[in-house]
Amino acid sequence: MTQISMGRIPEHFAAREGNQLALVYADTALTWSALAERVQRRAHGLKALGVEPGDIVTIALPNGTAFLETTYATLRLGATPNPVSSKMPMAELKAIVELAKPKVIVGVDSDAWPGWRTVGPEWTGETSDADLAEDIAPYWKAMTSGGSTGRPKLIVARSPGSVDLDAPNPLIGVGSEFRCSMVPGPLYHNGPFSTAMMSLNQGRRVVGQLRFDPEETLRLIAEHRADWLYQVPTMMSRIWALPKDVRERYDVSSLQRVLHLAAPCPPWLKEAWIDWLGADRVWELYGGTEAQGFTLISGSEWLAHRGSVGRFFNATVKILDDAGNELPAGEIGEVFMLPATGAGSTYHYVGATAKKHGDYESLGDMGWLDADGYLYLADRRTDLILRGGANIYPAEVEAAIDEHPDVASSVVIGLPHPDLGAEVHAIVQLKPGTAGTTDEVALKAFLKERLASYKVPSSFEFVNDFLRDDAGKVRRAALRAERIATREAARH
To answer: 176: pLDDT confidence band, cut at 50, 70 and 90?
Structure first.
């Protein structure tokens, strides 16, 4: 076991392979030595601003090397990084800052934050010859969540800011098995942030993007011979939507693992990637920032258990009905997990309370287990549409819509109905060049062959913009509120 402070990772690898590339974003490519120097400078700068072990530092920077430099600098002082979006609305950011109570906010205009210690996005720290103590943060990250509900919360990892250099990591691969991770997602989201950090902690090169671009992702994979790729279904869809000759322009044969997560992946899209890269290279992960439990499934397993997200490897699971009774295989209920390390061992909330059944906790997802213990997700309980007493899971309807060859993506929401309580409304983005060839009538006919009649949307809306962000997330509550407001305005 070789345990060191996570904040010393850049120094450690700089001593071993200082001239090797460590981190690449746009036109900034840092060797391990350059990364270590920048982290030291930022760490001294944060210390001068009063950051001490146990403090929180809120990082509101855009994607780029500065984000991860500041993260390591924070951990170098034994403090906890709190990543947030640089474009977050002020009201939402202020609510998060009130919860986190950071010692410093990095990346904001000081005039907008009276009473708080802040530095702007151009800040790079300060030079000092003083030694930095070997401090280990009590918690290695404090992620934010709650934007879809309007109630922000912090999800604070209970794992300290240290790393065992010899320990395998089942989530992103083991040790030197992989050498370069392509992580094109936004670093303020847990998936890209954690996978970028875990990759660097293993001495891998990390290549990211200022903003996701599908063709640029392929170009960077080819240039850096990336062997590991982080994806969400939105990214997978945008890459697959590229013309075939563009996709085939780039050599992606170096890829050994594509790990997708964060949102349901339409079966047709997953099959397309499996056909393209091979089943053993396409993997899926399910789990939350809370880390109570994770599943993993390879493409080969998925073909044998189509639609599953895999089996839990570090937790036990129960599927419970509304009364708290455990359900047998094949019946849909709420997914409750208990980590192998014990209740409450993986995280704690600030600003929220976990939903519990005894020691087991739920993220709000609905699903079922098959006889072999493979988990299948139905939807989030908060997204459930209750139409005339019947439960309709948007993910099921979206999966059917996304099977249509002209559809790029879809989001299904429930809108108020005076008789049924709710009606099913589909927001659909068509692939380029298909507008006018596929309409509501055609989609309804297509869906009636795949869904029970009561699940077929009663109304459709066609849009040009991508429905999910670069992290694969969609704010259903906001989409629903906008459409309800539009309907109300039309009545007056």
So the answer is: low
Give the domain range for residue 426. 384-491
**Comparing C-alpha atoms, which of 50, 146, 67, 154 is closest to residue 103?**
50
Count how many domains the chain has.
3
Find the angle CA(320)-CA(325)-CA(329) to the nearest 5 degrees: 60
Does residue 276 contact residue 242 with C-beta atoms inside 8 Å? Answer: no
Instruction: Residue 183: give its domain's CATH number.
Output: 3.40.50.12780
Secondary structure of residue 122 in the 3-state scheme:
coil
In this structure, how many other beta carbons lie within 10 angstroms of the beta carbon of residue 485? 10
- Residue identified by tokens 């108020």 is 416
> Where would I find the beta strands (DSSP E) of 321-389?
333-339, 347-350, 355-357, 360-369, 375-380, 385-387
Categorize the per-residue pLDDT at 147 as very low, low, confident or very high, splitting at 50, 70 and 90: very low
Task: Check whether residue 313 and residue 257 sit in a common domain.
Answer: no
Tell me, rounded to whole angstroms, the distance of Cα 7 from its chain centroid: 23
Distance CA 28, CA 9 (A): 20
Out of 253, 269, 285, a domain closes at 269
Cα separation, 18 vs 398, whole angstroms: 48
Residue with tokens 């997200």: 309
Residue range 308-337: mean pLDDT, rounded: 95
Give the pTM: 0.83
* pLDDT value at 177 more than 80: no
Encode 330-353: b = buried (16+ Cβ within 10 Å), e = exposed. eebbbbbbbbeeeeeebbbebbbe
Contacts 24+ apart (CB under 8 A), 479-483: 479/411, 479/413, 479/427, 480/413, 480/414, 480/415, 483/413, 483/415, 483/425
What is the DSSP secondary structure assignment for residue 315, as one 8-state letter?
A: E
Q: Give 438's DSSP letter.
A: B
- Decide if pLDDT at 63 tops 90: yes
Q: Residue type at 44?
A: H
Assign 328 to helix, strand or coil. coil
CATH of the domain at 464: 3.30.300.30
Q: What is the Cα–Cα distance from 439 to 10, expressed in whole angstroms?
A: 54
Angle at 121 between CA 472 and CA 42, to 5 degrees: 105
Distance CA 62, CA 107 (A): 8
For tokens 């950051």, the residue is 51
- Residues 391-418 have pLDDT tens digits of 787 888 888 898 898 888 899 999 988 7
Q: Where does a domain end: 224, 240, 269?
A: 269
Count CB-CB contacts under 10 A for residue 470. Answer: 20
Please provide residue 400's backbone torsions phi and psi, each rounded to the nearest 5 degrees. -70, -40
